[in-house]
Structures are given as structure tokens and as C-alpha cells.
Amino acid sequence: MNTNADFSQRVVVHSQQQPWVASPMPGVDRRPLDRVGDEVARATTIVRYAPGSEFSPHVHTGGEEFIVLEGVFQDQHGDFPAGSYVRNPPQSSHKPGSDEGCIIFVKLWQFNPDDRQHINIPARVDSTLVSNEFMPPAIGNVCKELYRDEFEVVSVYELAPNSVLELGAAKGLEALVLDGEFHESSDTLEKHSWLRLPIGSSLHGRAGKKGARMWIKTEHLPFVDEQIVRVKNT
């Protein structure tokens, strides 16, 4: 199954307007953003766990990266409240679920295959980021870098009301609006809207009147073809 699989194109998905699609596990539903593959896939997805739902134990052969959007995500390593950012590297395993229910934004099979670093950034890592409650800065923009290597850079941006954000996207860019609104090109991206810009692009946009908080990844799209090959060879 392919969804938004042409990575040379700009893509916007207003995920809040998309229907939930049942996964093979009862109580776990998905909103696909991009996907190449069947049940094993290079995928970017918003996933909803109903209260008391869980997945069976499994290995993430290609790695798993996620940020908790709502509720509390859980596995054998602990509880991850809204705002938590987690990277489970290739060959890691867990048994995910949620007692109270949760929604996460998750990316699968998008790691350097040699990466073995576990990352867990709690919901509040300093006085401003990445808390569950959004308080935009009075002026300007604040950036908190979550992860960086030679393959990708991941950050959370907090944007003051009506402030402008300009970023280079020579190697592609993805953005998920966590709170507020962001205006880019002719689109208004609201909470949980997702944007992907192709290689050779640039981002020029403006926060809404109440500001915006955004998860942004750059530098990563040149490696998509290699990731897809690894999925197909699994």
C-alpha cells in the first residue's frame, strides 16, 4: 500500500479531517500520512490507542520514532505523557499500549540501520519545551533541538503569534503542527496537520494569531530510497 509515496512532491495532510483506519490490533487505529509497503512499511502515521488497548510484543527492525500528542503512551520501559519524544533504534523491541488511551505521531523504518541509540526526552525538558501545555513566546521564535546526526535534524519550534518562520529545506522538510496554526503557501495548517516539502525546497510561513508549536525534521529525504529498499528486503 502506497500513500503519498512520491517524495518529489509537496504534500499537506489535514489529519484531523481524515478517517481513522483500523489496524490489525483491536482498539488501535491509524491515520496514514505517508507509507510505502504493506503491514511492514516505511511509514509516517498518526496512531490512536483506545483505553486499555495494546500491541503484542514486537521488534522494530527498522527503528521507531514518535512523539506523544495526547494521553499517555506506555510500554515495558515506562509511561510517556503528551509531549514525550522517543527514538527506539533498529532491532529494539517493546510491547506498546495505553491504559487511558493516547494518540502518537510515529515514523517507522526511517533510521540509519547502524543506529543503536535510545532517546527519551520527557514531556518537559526545560522551562519552555516540550510541555503538554502550549504557551507561545511573547515575541520571536524558540527552537529546541531534539536530535541530530548526519542523516537528520529533529526540532520543536515555538512561534510567537503572527511571527514568520523561514527554513532551508535543501534536503527536504517535514512539519507537524502540535498546537496553534501555521500558514504556508496557500494552506492553513491546524493542529495535527502535516507538511512535507521535497528536496530543493524552502519553508516560508507564518504562525497564526495565537502562535504555533511545530515538530520539524530536515536533512532526511535523500535517504528515502535506501529505507524503502531495506523494507522490501525484510
Detail the topology: elements first, then pairings:
Elements: E1 2-3, E2 11-14, E3 21-22, E4 28-37, E5 41-49, E6 53-54, E7 58-60, E8 64-75, E9 78-81, E10 85-88, E11 92-94, E12 97-98, E13 102-108, E14 119-121, E15 141-148, E16 153-159, E17 164-169, E18 173-184, E19 187-189, E20 193-197, E21 201-218, H1 224-232
Antiparallel strand pairs: 1-4, 2-20, 3-4, 4-5, 5-13, 6-12, 7-11, 8-9, 8-10, 8-13, 10-14, 15-16, 16-21, 17-21, 18-19, 18-20, 18-21
Compute the number of helices: 1
Radius of gyration: 17 Å
Mean pLDDT: 93
According to DSSP, the number of beta strands is: 21
CATH domain class name of the largest domain = Mainly Beta
Q: What is the overall shape?
A: globular
As residue ranges, the low-confidence spans are 125-129
Please name the fourth-level CATH homologous superfamily of the largest domain.
Jelly Rolls
- Main β sheet profile: 9 strands, antiparallel
Strand content: over 45%
Distance between the termini: 16 Å
InterPro entries: ChrR-like_cupin_dom (IPR025979), RmlC-like_jellyroll (IPR014710), RmlC_Cupin_sf (IPR011051)
Organism: Paraglaciecola chathamensis
Domain ChrR-like cupin: 9-111
Protein name: Cupin
Give your account of this protein's structure.
- This is Cupin.
- It comes from Paraglaciecola chathamensis.
- InterPro entries: ChrR-like_cupin_dom (IPR025979), RmlC-like_jellyroll (IPR014710), RmlC_Cupin_sf (IPR011051).
- This protein is mainly β.
- The protein folds into 2 domains: 16-124, Jelly Rolls (Sandwich), CATH 2.60.120.10; 141-221, Jelly Rolls.
- The chain is built from 1 helix and 21 strands.
- The chain has one helix at residues 224-232; strands spanning 2-3, 11-14, 21-22, 28-37, 41-49, 53-54, 58-60, 64-75, 78-81, 85-88, 92-94, 97-98, 102-108, 119-121, 141-148, 153-159, 164-169, 173-184, 187-189, 193-197, 201-218.
- Strands 1, 3, 4, 5, 8, 9, 10, 13 and 14 form a 9-stranded antiparallel sheet that branches. Strands 2, 15, 16, 17, 18, 19, 20 and 21 form an 8-stranded antiparallel sheet that branches.
- The radius of gyration is 17 Å and the shape is globular.
- It starts with a strand and ends with a helix.
- The model is unreliable at 125-129 (pLDDT under 50).
